[in-house]
């Protein structure tokens, strides 16, 4: 296995660009679901070079934010007050696949986004469908 090339492709800079696109796609999907139900709340995505904010706002809801922040050594997921929810580093698993490592556990990219966004996008008061 050419682990050197695979590890090079598993860099924070490369993964960060894909993550920003995937976050936007996740929020766009949820936004479309809510539009069909005429929900009075919604979500916005604010991508920047080193961060992405996902914001819940609308009628009858408390504004909440989840921030993804690119640091020198990880992608830090933080709440609206800046408190760290978790940090995700990158690892190359035994199969040569690039994965996030969160609290010592390997996670696929979609799972990291789910851990970060599920409560915001599908909080207890929000309909699942």
What's the structural blueprint in terms of helices and strands?
Elements: H1 3-9, H2 12-36, E1 41-47, E2 51-58, E3 64-70, E4 75-79, E5 84-92, E6 98-102, E7 105-107, H3 109-121
Antiparallel strand pairs: 1-2, 2-3, 3-4, 4-5, 5-6, 6-7
Main attributes of the structure:
129 residues; alpha+beta; Metal Transport, Frataxin, Chain A; seven-stranded antiparallel β-sheet; 3 helices; 35% helix; elongated
Could you walk me through the main structural features you see in this protein, from its secondary elements to its overall organization?
The chain has a seven-stranded antiparallel β-sheet. α2 (12-36) runs parallel beside α3 (109-121). It is α+β, with helices and mostly antiparallel strands and 129 residues long. It has helices spanning 3-9, 12-36, 109-121, and strands at residues 41-47, 51-58, 64-70, 75-79, 84-92, 98-102, 105-107. The mean pLDDT is 92. It has a single domain (3-121), classed as 2-Layer Sandwich (Metal Transport, Frataxin, Chain A). The relative contact order is 0.16. It has three helices and seven strands, in the order ααβββββββα. β1 (41-47) and β2 form a beta hairpin. It starts with a helix and ends in an 8-residue tail after the last helix.
Main β sheet profile: 7 strands, antiparallel
Assigned CATH architecture: 2-Layer Sandwich
What Rg, in angstroms, do the CA atoms define? 16 Å
Proportion of β residues?
A: 25-35%
How helical, in percent, are the residues? 25-40%
Mean pLDDT: 92
Q: Find the CATH topology.
A: Metal Transport, Frataxin, Chain A
Record field, number of beta strands:
7
Order of helices and strands: HHEEEEEEEH
Query: What's the CATH first level?
Result: Alpha Beta
């Amino acid at each position: 296995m050419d682990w050197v090339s695979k590890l090079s492709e598993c860099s924070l800079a490369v993964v960060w660009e894909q993550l920003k696109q995937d976050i936007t796609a996740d929020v766009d999907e949820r936004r479309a679901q809510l539009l069909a139900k005429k929900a009075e709340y919604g979500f916005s995505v604010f991508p920047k070079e080193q961060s992405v904010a996902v914001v819940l706002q609308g009628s009858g809801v408390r504004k909440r934010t989840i921030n993804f922040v690119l640091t020198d050594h990880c992608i830090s997921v933080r709440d609206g007050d800046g408190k760290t929810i978790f940090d995700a580093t990158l690892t190359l698993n035994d199969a040569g696949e690039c994965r996030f490592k969160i609290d010592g556990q390997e996670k696929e990219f979609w799972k990291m986004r789910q851990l970060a966004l599920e409560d915001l996008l599908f909080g207890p008061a929000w309909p699942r469908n």
